[in-house]
Amino acid sequence: MANRIRLKSLPPLPVRSEEENQRLLKEHQDKLVRIQQAMLFTGQRAVVVFEGMDAAGKGGTIRRLAWALDPRSLKVWPIGAPNEIEAKQHYLQRFWTRMPEYSQIAVFDWSWYGRVLVERVEDLTPSKDWRRAYGEINAFEQQLVDAGIKVVKLFLHVSKNEQRRRLIDRMRDPLKRWKLTYEDFRNRSRWADYVKATEDMLERTSTKAAPWHVVPSDDKPAARIAALGILAERLSAGLDLSLPPLDRRIAQIALKMLGKDTAKRSR
After folding, report:
1. Domain region containing 15
2. Is residue 85 in some structural domain?
3. N or C, where is the chain less crowded by C-beta within 10 Å?
4. CA angle 83, 88, 94 (to 5 degrees)
């Protein structure tokens, strides 16, 4: 297990100019495009988990990931409370059904970690059940890795003062009010409890197979760059990112149907 992370003591991310932020963002997005192409050709698949405090910037980071990738092999799962049927099943069952097919990337906006976060803090699950869940989750993720699925887990942490500013901004902006929920304010009232639960989660479920990556996110552009950089690094491990040659049969058909200058233009 990992050493205990103290959310209050996270080192700040580098401060960069807007131009540098945009350059790094494009660099990471371009690499993620090549990663997706490599996965399409090799059949590899991945699971990406986003957790974090309310208003930590998960949605904005996921959007910038999704903007770069082909949606046909990317699936984003926004996870809320289980429905009536799911509530009667084992809590991991609904996630098994959302695992990626070959060549796909599945992104979870919230995840199975609700068991040891909101369900723990809000007393929605008996203590013996959420305490047992640490081992169940580690075994679950180990099974994914053993099946050849890359697992990348990111926790975006926003400070209490910055969260307050963002919640006020959401209240004042009609285009952002849809993001506000009762739970945002309920959870804020239990801030210390959520910090304790989060630090326990990071300590108990950061494993060699599926380590946690904690990103301080008071600076949104810096946090997005850090998160996408981690994704690019982790997802590219063991992948050949060189561009594959054009299939010979397709090249022959294209030459016949489109003309002799086809090959020159496609280089």
Report:
1. 7-265
2. yes
3. C
4. 60
